[in-house]
């Protein structure tokens, strides 16, 4: 009797300690899936998806409350990756393969630097009263600059295919 | 020296007798020259001339941008008519920024750097001069020669392999160059050897070119570190990795550079261009190109960079019959010329007018899993498995089967009894994988920029608060000191 009580108590104490230690040592900071999804998103927090930022969008995605096609700057590539990670199938036919990036119409730019200030990725170069310039390598096409431009000098333009981004087309499948 | 048999390979019909007997002809000055600013691997050169500007022969018209790039020079004297996008000699048929030159017919040289004795130059100086001369690998890969040489010097390479394989059918431009300008090639090899500081040079030539071997042997007499090595005629012997294995028995690991094995490879035509650049200070302005197939006078022609393909065909007497396909490069690895106005560039080794009889059957049938492609692959890959995955857009699966190690030599497609366009599958997958890789890198860079901006904004806000606080304290202090007296 005493042996039984003793052994079960001991077992309880040991397991309790193990669990307590594990809870301290192996604590999970948030949902790891959210971290993974956030890593796939551009992190520019442009808000085009309707969420406050990429992190919040990732949380919604993890709860399956948002479609994988939510990110316009990420385009088809990001949507595909998100669908792959979440294990869902998505209709990507409506999404363009070609990303859209911001471009400055030089004849309209007055050099107010508003766009440069709001650009989340510092992709716009410009000094007061100088024509601004978009560094296309850093632009995610989030469109934040377009809303603040007082002269509508900024617009999103589809990237023209060039030799550097050209890929051999896939051959037509063999006859069965 | 003992050779090592390479894996796989095929024996396509050579068709070399068509052009290998006649000497290299010099093309008269064409009416217009179209010099693209991106004729090499890496970033395009940036135009440094204006429309309407007079240029001399050999003057810099495009300066190299970034670490892997090559300079571009005016092939003759004349006026810059335009700097505009023109269709590139590229399978996409997309435009490239091109400098159009209207030759004045005088062919006047610009002031060239008076060269010193090449053997007094330091390796860095030789690399700098090659970079200034815009020299790129002329075997077709067009990798900037100066970058390759600098890497070789850094890695203390001790074996210089000069590639005179020319295993592609039809092409004889390197063969003729070796026969006619052996001295120049050997001079270039000696300069390159001097640059790498020590070691030996192996000039590998396929044994179907005995005249070239004899000419090189005669020219190399007395230079002990240079050895001419006949290699068996087997396609793709002229591929860098295969040639290294054949000569040294060492395999270049996936994703590694030959320099890591202590080897560097240059083409024979590149060696000749090195001699021109270092001995005479002349930049790369022309190249020898084989014009073959269904043309009236098939021959090797030395053409200025920027010469439209039409001028080459006209010089060779026009077509004997309308070609089914015009190919730039060789029939195995070359690609279709988008139109007759595209120019000769630094990497153009051939212009072939192929008729329907010369072309393989194009109607592909299903794979019967015969495994011929596996036997033919010189890289030890399994083309049928890779193609099956790419067909389903499973590029990662194809990469796991090693598609990024494929050299696109076309041996698999050549032997395929079902005529499956295997190489096109692999090029498609490689393009996709490279693009995806670039996008991922760009996304990571953009993420870093975003984080940096957030940090900066937080810092600025903090600084503003601190300033406001300091101002407030100063005001209070001032008020307090006013009260005290």
Polypeptide structure, described:
The complex is a heterodimer of chains A (176) and B (485). Chain A has helices at 2-25, 32-40, 54-62, 75-86, 114-118, 144-148, and strands spanning 100-104, 124-125, 133-134, 154-158. Chain A is mainly alpha-helical. Among the domains of chain A are: 32-86, Orthogonal Bundle (3-methyladenine DNA Glycosylase II, Chain A, domain 3); 100-158, Alpha-Beta Plaits (2-Layer Sandwich). In chain A, the strands form two sheets. A two-stranded antiparallel ribbon of chain A has the order 1-4. In chain A, strands 2-3 form a two-stranded antiparallel sheet. In chain A, strand 2 (124-125) and strand 3 form a beta hairpin. In chain A, helix 2 (32-40) packs across helix 3 (54-62). The longest helix of chain A has 24 residues, at 2-25. Chain B has helices at 123-132, 145-154, 173-180, 182-196, 210-220, 240-248, 268-280, 309-315, 372-376, 383-391, 395-400, 411-415, 422-483; strands at residues 25-26, 33-36, 46-47, 54-55, 60-63, 72-73, 78-87, 95-103, 159-164, 200-206, 226-231, 263-267, 286-293, 299-304, 325-328, 335-336, 350-354. Chain B contains 13 helices and 17 strands. Chain B has a six-stranded mixed β-sheet, with helices on both faces. Chain B is α/β, with parallel strands linked by helices and 485 residues long. In chain B, helix 5 links the parallel strand 10 and strand 11 (226-231). In chain B, helix 3 (173-180) runs parallel beside helix 5 and helix 4 packs across helix 7 (268-280). The mean pLDDT of chain B is 92. Chain A binds chain B through residues 42-45, 77, 120-123, 137-138, 140, 161-163, 165-176, and chain B through 38, 88, 90-92, 94, 96, 363-367, 390-391, 393, 418, 420-421, 424-425, 427-428, 431-432, 435-436, 439, 442-443, 445-447, 449-453.
């Amino acid at each position: 009797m005493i042996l039984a009580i003793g052994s079960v108590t001991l077992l309880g104490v040991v397991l309790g300690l193990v669990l307590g230690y594990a809870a301290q040592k192996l604590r999970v900071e948030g949902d790891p899936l959210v971290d993974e999804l956030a890593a796939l998103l551009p992190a520019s927090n442009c808000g085009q998806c309707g969420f406050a930022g990429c992190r919040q969008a990732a949380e919604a995605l993890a709860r399956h409350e948002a479609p994988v096609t939510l990110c316009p700057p990420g385009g088809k590539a990001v949507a595909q990756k998100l669908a792959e990670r979440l294990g869902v199938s998505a209709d990507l036919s409506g999404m363009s393969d070609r990303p859209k990036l911001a471009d400055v119409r030089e004849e309209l730019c007055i050099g107010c630097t508003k766009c440069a200030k709001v650009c989340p990725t510092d992709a716009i170069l410009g000094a007061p009263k100088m024509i601004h310039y978009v560094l296309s390598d850093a632009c995610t096409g989030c469109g934040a600059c377009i809303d603040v431009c007082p002269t509508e000098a900024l617009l999103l333009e589809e990237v023209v295919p060039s030799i550097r981004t050209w890929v051999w087309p896939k051959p037509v499948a063999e006859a069965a | 020296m003992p050779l090592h048999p390479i894996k796989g390979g095929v024996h396509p019909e050579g068709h070399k007798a068509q052009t290998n007997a006649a000497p290299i002809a010099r093309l008269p000055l064409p009416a217009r020259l179209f010099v693209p600013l991106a004729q090499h691997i890496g970033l395009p050169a940036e135009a440094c001339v204006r429309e309407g500007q007079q240029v001399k022969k050999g003057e810099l018209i495009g300066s190299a941008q970034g670490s892997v790039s090559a300079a571009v020079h005016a092939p003759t004297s004349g006026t810059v008519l335009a700097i505009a996008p023109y269709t590139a000699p590229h399978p996409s048929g997309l435009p490239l920024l091109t400098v159009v030159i209207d030759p004045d017919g005088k062919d006047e040289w610009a002031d060239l750097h008076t060269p010193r004795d090449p053997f007094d130059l330091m390796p860095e100086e030789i690399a700098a001069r090659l970079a200034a001369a815009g020299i790129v690998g002329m075997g077709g890969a067009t990798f900037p020669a100066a970058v390759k040489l600098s890497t070789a010097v850094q890695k203390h390479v001790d074996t210089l392999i000069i590639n005179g394989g020319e295993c592609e059918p039809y092409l004889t431009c390197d063969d003729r160059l070796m026969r006619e300008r052996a001295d120049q090639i050997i001079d270039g090899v000696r300069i390159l050897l001097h640059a790498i500081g020590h070691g030996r040079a192996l000039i590998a030539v396929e044994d179907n070119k005995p005249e070239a071997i004899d000419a090189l042997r005669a020219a190399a007499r007395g230079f002990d570190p240079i050895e001419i090595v006949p290699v068996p005629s087997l396609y793709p012997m002229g591929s860098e990795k295969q040639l290294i294995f054949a000569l040294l028995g060492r395999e270049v690991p996936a994703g590694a550079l030959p320099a890591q094995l202590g080897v560097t490879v240059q083409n024979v035509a590149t060696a000749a261009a090195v001699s021109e650049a270092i001995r005479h200070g002349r930049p790369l302005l022309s190249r020898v190109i084989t014009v073959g197939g269904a043309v009236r006078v098939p021959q090797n022609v030395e053409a200025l960079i920027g010469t439209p393909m039409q001028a080459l065909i006209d010089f060779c007497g026009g077509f004997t019959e309308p070609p089914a396909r015009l190919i730039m490069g060789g029939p195995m690895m070359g690609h279709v010329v988008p139109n007759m106005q595209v120019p000769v560039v630094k990497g153009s080794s051939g212009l072939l007018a192929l008729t329907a009889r010369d072309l393989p059957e194009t109607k592909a049938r299903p794979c019967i899993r015969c495994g011929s492609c596996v036997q033919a692959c010189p890289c030890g890959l399994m083309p049928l498995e890779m193609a099956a995955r790419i067909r389903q857009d499973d590029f990662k699966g194809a990469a796991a089967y090693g598609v990024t190690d494929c050299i696109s030599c076309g041996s698999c497609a050549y032997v395929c009894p079902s005529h499956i366009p295997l190489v096109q599958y692999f090029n498609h997958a490689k393009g996709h994988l490279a693009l995806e890789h670039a996008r991922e890198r760009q996304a990571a860079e953009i993420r870093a920029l975003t984080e940096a901006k957030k940090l900066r904004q937080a810092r600025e806000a903090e600084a503003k608060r601190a300033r406001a606080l300091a101002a407030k304290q100063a005001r209070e202090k001032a008020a307090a000191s006013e009260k005290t007296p």
